[in-house]
Design goal:
Layout (H helix, E strand, L loop, with lengths): L1 H26 L4 H20 L9 H13 L1
């Protein structure tokens, strides 16, 4: 479960960093927070890739989100 949670958290953080990059672009400056968020997301995704026995496929990513959500609901 831990690599799956790291993958989902990294994916969500990386997606939020894109929003921060866009906000900075519209306002005309670069955001340091966006760079830190992107780095954290990439590190978490990399950790998950290294520690997951079979790796992740693009078609299996939705099931990773479902497994993590199911673990939180239980």
């Amino acid at each position: 479960m831990m690599p799956d949670l790291a993958f989902v958290a990294g994916f969500l953080i990386a997606c939020l960093s894109v929003l921060s990059f866009l906000k900075g672009y519209v306002e005309g400056h670069l955001s340091r927070v966006a760079f830190v968020m992107l780095a954290a997301g990439v590190v978490l995704i990399g950790y998950a890739e290294v520690h997951h026995p079979a790796g992740y496929s693009v078609s299996g990513i939705p099931m990773v989100f479902v497994r993590v959500a199911g673990d939180f609901i239980r």
